[in-house]
Structure to design on (131 residues):
């Protein structure tokens, strides 16, 4: 199985990413010579990690009819400079949960089920925790 997307230049510093029928703009901030028409690629990488993980978590919550709701993730990437890359990524999960232990178990399980975290783990230190 493969997943394919397209990324096309649409401005001096702006690209448009397309996946299936969905589109997103990618750009640099004004202070880095961009037009600030979209998130930077690094920001989108963090969003991709959070989105993949949360998708798995919500599916696990539904499958178990767990009393977990109002889930919010904070995804923080710490940069290294040479070469420019994320050294660590920390994901904090905040939610209303009747059973914190169940939430912690689901967070651990969904980290292992996420395509993005499984791809990134060999290259970056990943941490998932319940807030």
């Amino acid at each position: 199985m493969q997943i394919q997307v397209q990324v096309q230049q649409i401005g001096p510093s702006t690209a448009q990413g397309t996946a299936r029928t969905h589109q997103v703009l990618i750009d640099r901030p004004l202070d880095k010579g961009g037009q600030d028409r979209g998130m930077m690629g690094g920001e989108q990488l963090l969003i991709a990690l959070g989105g993949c993980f949360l998708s798995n978590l919500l599916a696990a919550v539904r499958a178990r009819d767990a009393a977990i709701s109002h889930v919010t993730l904070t995804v923080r990437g710490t940069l290294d400079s040479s070469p420019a890359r994320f050294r660590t990524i920390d994901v904090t999960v905040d939610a209303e949960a009747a059973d914190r232990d169940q939430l912690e178990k689901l967070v651990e399980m969904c980290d292992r089920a996420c395509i993005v975290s499984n791809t990134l783990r060999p290259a970056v230190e990943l941490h998932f925790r319940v807030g």
In short: The two ends are 35 Å apart (CA to CA). The mean pLDDT is 96. Helices lie at 41-64, 100-113, 115-120. The first helix runs from residue 41 to 64.
